[in-house]
Design goal:
By secondary structure, the chain is mainly alpha-helical. It is about 95% helix and about 0% strand. It folds into 2 domains: about 210 residues; about 290 residues, Helix Hairpins. It is flat.
């Protein structure tokens, strides 16, 4: 079967691709296993979070019931009801989402304990508080709610530990699956690389062996051996290349034989033509050399006069430009004097303004410093008020405790103590707000003091720079006035130079016309002689080149091996 190099390369590539595909398929299978472990882990983490939320809500339920027992505010009772409803919802979700029977049973046990806890609260604890029997409610809380809460938290902790163990197991499974995929991927990559290298070496040898043989034949052909013939062993592109090489060598052999015969005849005719043209060329060269010497002298004189005239014309133009520039500079310098005078006046006004800013900045710095001192004093007073409010709050709490001990006789005093405590809390809160405002005012005044100091330094620097600018403008004004005087002198001198250079240019142009006329006559004679000489030299050179080419061609052909 005839197979081209392209088809062979495709076969080798398909072998490597087949091995790589098998390895990749196994890697994809292992990745799917790792992905399944990861999905299982992702499902366990939310359930563990819900378990933690139930524990946290249960703790908050107990805290709100204790607060309701102590203070009797409905907001604590409402918060308890909200947390109880939230826990019921979370427990139902855990039961519905459970995959294993153990996990579902733990969730159901937790819900049962939570329902029993809520039953005690709703049927005993809250009715006693509503009836005003605080001591009875306290007994229920200590004897029934506390043990029930402990059981509930213990069951939640048991469920948490169970779910933690399942999560750790899922993490370990995912880790080991991922590690196994990584090892397998590395092994498959190494095997595919080794197999690809082996197949590549085999393919390279199969393809390059006949090419190296053909390369050796080409090297012999380059040395001149045209009697070679390549052996055609395959029918692919390499075999076609060998056939083309044989055809090329046969064609070159015929061409070299024909060129060798023609080069011998060309060499003989070229030698005879070169000998005849050499005698005629020698005489023409002597006459041409004499005439060229005369023409060259006239050309040199003409070029010198032309260059001199051009230089003087350029010099005259430059002098005229210098004159125009001097007049323009004089006019601009007058404008510069006026601008510098106006700038000096402006700098004087700026100096006065900078001094005024300097004085106002110092006054503002003093005022901000006083404001900072007053803010600190207010802060000390506010700290005293905060301390008094804290003491009042403590006294109100102690009074409430004493009123509770007194029972019914101290109930009115407990109301007064409660109001005092609220007033103390409000005073403390307002004192904290005042303290925060004073802190912000103190920070801002400190920043303002620093900014004013920096501004004062910058203003002093600005005053110094403005003074320096005034001195620089005075120096510029004096220098511009001197420049105007010098430019006026330059303009007067350039007027005289322009007139003198115009006369010299006219005389040089007249001499250049005479030299140009003589040069044209000499060039006409020289041109005729040069044309004759050039023709003879061309014939001689062509003959010599043809003879040399024939000899070189013959020597090159002798390098080829065209006969046995």
């Amino acid at each position: 079967m005839k197979m081209t190099l392209a088809k062979k390369m495709i076969v080798y590539f398909l072998l490597v691709t087949l091995v790589a595909t098998a390895g990749l398929t196994y890697i994809i299978y292992e990745c799917a296993q790792a992905e399944a472990s990861g999905s299982d882990l992702m499902g366990k983490v939310p359930r563990m979070q819900k378990n933690n939320d139930i524990a946290y809500n249960a703790a908050l339920e107990s805290s709100n019931l204790r607060a309701y027992l102590l203070y009797g505010k409905e907001q604590y009772l409402n918060e308890y009801y909200r947390l109880a409803q939230l826990n019921i919802k979370l427990e139902d979700e855990l039961i519905n989402d459970a995959v294993l029977n153990t996990s579902r049973q733990l969730a159901m046990d937790t819900k049962a304990l939570d329902q029993k806890y809520a039953e005690i609260v709703n049927t005993k604890f809250i009715p006693l508080l509503k009836a005003g029997n605080r001591d009875g409610a306290m007994q229920v809380a200590v004897n029934e709610l506390a043990p029930q809460s402990s059981q509930l938290l213990a069951k939640i902790e048991e469920a948490k530990n169970y779910r933690m163990s399942t999560v750790n197991q899922a993490v370990n499974n995912t880790y080991y699956d991922t590690k196994r995929v990584k090892e397998i991927a590395g092994l498959v990559t190494v095997l595919v690389a080794i197999l690809g290298i082996l197949i590549g070496i085999f393919a390279a040898r199969r393809i390059t062996s006949p090419i190296k043989v053909l390369q050796g034949l080409m090297a012999q052909a380059c040395e001149g051996n045209l009697l070679l013939k390549a052996s055609v062993e395959t029918s692919d592109e390499v075999g076609q290349l060998c056939e083309s090489f044989n055809t090329m060598i046969a064609s070159q052999l015929e061409i070299v034989k024909s060129v060798k015969n023609s080069s011998v005849d060309l060499a003989a005719a070229s030698q005879e033509m070169a000998a005849s043209s050499a005698e005629v060329s020698a005489t023409a060269v002597t006459v041409s050399q004499r005439n060229q010497m005369v023409a060259q002298s006239m050309i040199s004189a003409s070029n010198s006069s032309t260059e001199t005239s051009q230089v003087l014309i350029e010099l005259s133009a430059l002098i005229q430009i210098a004159k125009d520039k001097a007049l323009s500079a004089s006019a601009k310098s007058s404008t510069s004097i006026k601008t510098a005078t106006e700038g000096k006046a402006t700098v004087n006004v700026v100096m006065k303004s900078m001094n005024t800013i300097h004085n106002k900045t110092k006054e503002a710095e003093k005022v901000i410093g006083l404001l900072n001192e007053y803010s600190q004093k207010i802060g000390m007073i506010n700290a005293t008020i905060t301390g008094i409010a804290d003491q009042t709050n403590l006294l109100a709490l102690n009074a409430a405790i004493e009123a509770a001990r007194a029972g019914e006789s101290g109930r009115g005093f407990a109301v007064v103590a409660e109001e005092v405590r609220k007033l103390a809390e409000q005073s403390n809160a307002e004192a904290m707000n005042i303290s925060q405002l004073i802190s912000k005012i103190t920070e801002n005044t400190d920043s303002a003091v620093i900014a004013m100091k920096d501004s004062l330094v910058e203003v002093e620097i600005g005053v110094e720079e403005v003074n320096k600018a005034g001195e620089s403008l005075e120096n510029i004004l004096a220098a511009v006035k001197e420049t105007v005087s010098d430019i006026d002198g330059i303009a007067k001198v350039t007027n005289d130079e322009v007139a003198s250079s115009d006369k010299i240019v006219e005389l040089i142009e007249a001499v250049a016309e005479i030299i140009e006329s003589t040069n044209q006559d000499a060039q006409e004679v020289s041109t005729a002689i040069e044309e004759t000489t050039a023709t003879i030299e061309t014939v001689a050179a062509s003959s010599e080149q043809a003879s040399a080419m024939a000899q070189n061609l013959n020597s090159l052909i002798n390098r080829f091996k065209i006969e046995e």
